Amino acid sequence: MSDARQQLVSRVASDRPFEVERSALESMWLSAANDLLAERRQQIPVLSRVADSTGVESISSLEDLVPLLFAHSVYKSYPRSLLDKRRWDGLTNWLDTVAASSVKDVDLKGVETQDDWVAALARSGHPVYASSGTSGKSSFLPATPGDREFTMSCIIRAVQWQHQIQPDQSNAVVVLAPSQGSSRALEYYRLFAQLYGDPDRTYFLTDEPALLSDLTRMASLTKSIADGTAMPSELTAFEADMADRRRRIDDDWDRLADVVVGMSGDRVIIQGFWAQQWTLVERLRSRGVAHLPLHEDSLLGVGGGTKGANLPPDFEAQIFEFYGLSASRQASGYGMSELSAAMPQIGDRYVIQPWIIPLILSEDGTELINPSSGQHEGRFAFFDTAIEGRWGGLISGDRVIADFDTPNVTIVAGSVARYSDLRGGEDDRLTCAGTVDAFVRSLTGDGT
Amino acid sequence: MTKLNIAHIVKGEVVEGNETEHGALVTPALNLDSLVWSRREPLPAADVSLDEVIDLLVEVGTRLDPDTNPWLGEAMAWAGESGSLSPRLVEESYRGLPGLFSKESLRFQVETELGWSAATGWSDIPDPWGGTHHVRAFPPRLVHVVAGNTPGTAAVTIVRGALTRGVNLMKLGSDDPLTASAILRTMAEVAPDHPTLRSFSAVYWKGGDRSIENALFRPQYFDKLVAWGGEAAIRNALSYIGPGFELVAFDPKVSISLVGHEALQSNLTLKESAAAAATDITIYNQGACASSRFIYAEGTRGDLREWCEVLAAEMGLDRPLSDGCGVPVPEDVRDEVEGLRFLPDDYEVFGNFTTGTVVLSDEPVSFHPDGKVVNVVAVPSLDSALEYVTVATQTIGIYPRARGVEMRDALASCGMQRLVALGEVSTKVPGVPHDGFFPLHRLVRWLVDDTGTI
């Protein structure tokens, strides 16, 4: 690791690493980015192609980084037919094109599903963070075991920075998510429960793993409906399975609600995205519990998008009111699996770690905005100098408002939205061109 | 963003105003009551002779020259600035409008789709038991949700509405809020207060606005909802469909090409077939339902490489209905293609995102090719392409044309709606089936008077 990178990354050891002035970082940022470009373009085929085609040989300003940033979709740029045909060797070859060290030594024996494939990679020393996508295609982010450890060590400290809660296994912890699964969020919940939770008072929604292959199964069936090869009995069988699963999840929520009802007055940490937090409150209300006052030092670990979750506009206020908590009793932040460390919310800002170079771009992702002062809206992108397993430069799909008047760049809390959501709704264009998707009525999954 | 203030046409009259804003579009306030025609009153144009209607349309057609017609000129200029097509293509599409108003075309449509006698009045049909029935293609009450990706849609809607002689409420899209009004204003200039003109309204509201649509889309006011494309628009329309209120959907579709091994026979056939394929792919810069997106070609990938090279080059040429370069490739398509470049064992990429991209593979790609991106799929025989023809398949261009006969029944069974020689997709004429039906036939109400039966 080069000097500059070493200096940036080693700040992780300080108490509050995000409290460094931008001016003290900028020269190290450029130097670290330069070293990484030279090193990674030898290792990552996709980067080498991008660098060759843009002609960027070195980084002398932050602008130079922009054409080298990957689109977030790069990590799901494999053809879906590899999943449909269970071509794990093909998928491995694809992963190799975005990974900094070869993953081809993975042992694929016995791999039947994406989940098996991810597990096999992890066993071979190539941990991969998978995140599910709507099209049935998940993103796969290659990492090294060191990356994984580094990331967890960072995000696990957020509640210490925010609320001075210590990892002393003394807390009642409720996790509104499965205890198993290969996404980064689930790994974080597991580790959080282990370090902060009192083993006798730690509860997960379910032990049934969240499987990537469930989504793929849905996507494969949708494809065979579109192709005209699916038979009606396959549809009813699928609907019945989904209905079963829904019933199981329903039972899980009931079980968890039983536990939480008994926690009235306790100091509890409830971890889960907003949509799940809302589900729990609704579940408790449906049992006639109008309020469930928790100890005032309780904490809600929240986050996540709320699109499609059908939440009332004041869901946040309702949730805090339900537990009798002040709205400050939340641990939230802005993050994505592509970052080595999420940005915890401190006060009314999401703060950025010093080894991550924040890049605020024009909406189309081609121009760097990063001004010297003021608040500016733009597309969030970054170059993360801590990542070993893949290229650290990425353009997100998010619109943010960034504040350049704070010591380092920060993001205004609550300002994050997806451009794709912002654009939706205003469009009233009609064209005769369609896709086969229009001909596939969606499966309800409720057996009706 | 500059705002565009449009006028509404209500029962043939121009309504100006700027009371309502929809993003960049400013419109007069809607008076919902003025948008329906009472069933208690006769339809304005029901008894106008069809010859008179055709003469009116022909005269309108002669005045649809954007150089001399200020309304059409404005529509064309706006479309050139705001749309995804280049000003040259926009102009090309506007200059094609008069052709839709030719006497031969109008008479041919009535003749093939309705039959002249049923279209003009109660037509006698004797039955085998000695009775006689009087059948009429009765003028309908239609509400049209008009697609706006080309001006032809507005023109075709007006032609069909006039020929069926019912009443027509056109709900315009934000991508073409001007063409329909321009044509109707031209009609007003030709024949002010003509019953056909009074049978048309063309207004804008935001598609899906339930407070408006739930009030208007009812059988008491309209017989049929004519919806063009757009899955969301059609699904939205469905919520209003019920007894007495029917949906006529021009479904959103995908088109493909079939290329036989004959294409590879000689340099001549190679060039000819690749040029024809490029023509069909790039119709309206691949923005139309008829634009081909997948080409199933007989041969191995090795056999087809040279053909793909030539195809990619042909896609970069300016054609009457396409721009040689500069068509934006959607971000997701771009990402997918970039990903495939790293899997050379399964996918080969020819061309580029500026002039056109060809992906050659043994199986269709899993994304929707768009922005002048096409997927050539190598198949051992055209029969093996049948598995890729589905209910979503609209037009199939085939090379050579002679192979159409051997394939057409099987293709039709799989879902195809129109078969055409490769390169001739855009030569579609009115008067033959469109999207699986005769449009005029579907639009009218087929009524019978049995009092003649003995």
Short overview:
The complex is a heterodimer of chains A (448) and B (454). By secondary structure, chain A is of the alpha/beta class.
What tags apply to this protein structure?
heterodimer; A: 448 residues; 5-stranded parallel β-sheet; 16 strands; B: 454 residues; 20 strands; 21% strand; globular
What does the model show?
Chain A is of the alpha/beta class. In chain A, 37% of the residues lie in helices and 17% in strands. Chain A contains 15 helices and 16 strands. Chain A has helices at residues 3-9, 26-43, 45-54, 62-65, 81-84, 88-96, 114-123, 145-155, 158-163, 184-196, 212-227, 232-261, 274-286, 315-323, 419-423; strands spanning 70-71, 128-131, 139-142, 171-178, 197-206, 268-271, 299-301, 330-331, 333-334, 343-346, 349-351, 356-361, 375-384, 393-403, 410-412, 417-418. In chain A, strands 1, 9, 10, 11, 12, 13, 14, 15 and 16 form a nine-stranded mixed sheet that branches. A five-stranded parallel sheet of chain A has the order 5-4-6-7-8. In chain A, β9 (333-334) and β10 form a beta hairpin. The longest helix of chain A has 30 residues, at 232-261. Chain A is globular, with a radius of gyration of 23 Å. The relative contact order of chain A is 0.13. The mean pLDDT of chain A is 89. Chain B has 454 residues and is of the alpha/beta class. Helix content of chain B is 33%, strand content 21%. Chain B has helices spanning 50-62, 70-82, 87-95, 103-113, 116-120, 152-164, 179-190, 195-198, 210-216, 231-238, 267-281, 301-315, 331-340, 404-414, 439-443, and strands at 4-5, 8-10, 13-15, 20-22, 25-27, 123-126, 132-138, 141-145, 167-171, 200-203, 224-228, 246-250, 254-259, 292-298, 347-352, 356-361, 373-379, 393-399, 418-421, 445-449. Chain B is globular. The interface between A and B is large, with 35 and 53 residues.
